[in-house]
Each structure stands twice: as structure tokens, then as C-alpha cells.
Design brief:
The chain is α+β, with helices and mostly antiparallel strands and about 150 residues long. Helices cover about 35% and strands about 25% of the residues. The chain contains 6 helices and 8 strands. It has helices spanning about 10-20, 25-30, 35-40, 50-60, 70-80, 90-95; strands at about 45-50, 85, 100, 105, 110, 115-120, 120-130, 135-140. The strands form 2 sheets. The chain has a 6-stranded mixed sheet with strand order 2-1-8-7-6-5. Strands 3-4 form a two-stranded antiparallel sheet. Helix 1 (about 10-20) runs antiparallel to helix 2. The radius of gyration is 14 Å and the shape is globular. The relative contact order is 0.22.
């Protein structure tokens, strides 16, 4: 994948969203949780980015109307569960038995049914490169164990 020169994880998500409209809720969530500076910083991250459809399913499950209805602490914990330190491209992801997240929990990659997954979320687009890491698009919002 071509490196997006100078475009950070958030910048890349915004650019992809402008093109495809996949990340409105993710961007709202990152802003509300106060994570923009973290994800735009100098550290390298791997972000498993849920689509808008994934967030809509979460809203339905929680019985809420949108990002604004989710408490900031909860939102932050959920988002950090989608972020791993370091840049891990898809080959590294699927060959790992587990991936430690910034929230100190673990994600469990697998390959089955012709697809790659983390926990029960399917990776629908992999290796979206950013200047400070890589984004893998997933079809489900991952929830850390309570």
C-alpha cells in the first residue's frame, strides 16, 4: 500500500471518509473521546477502524441514538481497544495469536471462512497506510471484556 505522505491516522480516516463516507461515527467518537492528538502523535499505531454501519449496529445494541449518547469514559475505553501500539500490517496481524491494545487488553486475530478477523469483526479492508501507522477497516465495533 502506498504511504500517505504526511497524513496521520486521523487525517487518513478523514480523507477516506470524504471519499467513501465510512468513518463519520469513528471520527466523531475520536473527537469526543479526546483522542485526536494521541492518534496524530509521533508514535506508530495500528487502528482497527469500525465502519459507520458497525457503529449503527452498536447504537442499536445499546439503545442509543449516536456517539453523543455514549459516556466519554466508555467511548474512550472502547476506542483504545481498537488501537495497538506499533505499525502492524495485515500479514503481521493474521500471523499473531493475540495483539495487545493500548487499553492493555488483547485482540485475537484469526483467519476462517475466507476472511481475516479480529475477535468477531471481519477485516473488510486492510493496510490503509498513514504517516504514523496503519488502519484496518472492520465491520463490527469491538467491545472490551467487562
Amino acid at each position: 500500500a502506498a504511504r500517505q505522505s504526511g497524513s496521520t491516522i486521523v487525517g487518513t480516516a478523514i480523507a477516506v471518509n470524504a471519499a467513501n463516507g465510512e468513518f463519520d461515527y469513528l471520527i466523531q467518537a475520536v473527537v469526543r473521546a479526546g483522542l485526536v492528538d494521541t492518534l496524530n502523535g509521533n508514535r506508530q499505531f495500528t487502528v482497527f477502524a469500525p465502519t459507520d454501519a458497525a457503529f449503527e449496529a452498536l447504537f442499536d445494541a445499546l439503545g442509543v441514538d449516536g456517539i453523543a449518547d455514549i459516556p466519554v469514559d466508555t467511548l474512550r475505553a472502547v476506542l483504545l481497544y481498537h488501537v495497538a501500539p506499533g505499525e502492524r500490517f495485515s500479514g503481521d496481524v493474521v500471523s499473531s495469536s493475540r495483539i495487545r491494545t493500548v487499553s492493555k487488553s488483547f485482540l485475537f486475530p484469526s483467519v476462517h471462512d475466507g476472511g481475516a478477523y479480529v475477535n468477531d469483526a471481519r477485516i473488510v479492508a486492510a493496510d490503509v497506510d498513514a504517516s504514523n501507522g496503519v488502519i484496518h477497516v472492520i465491520d463490527t465495533v469491538l467491545l472490551p471484556a467487562a
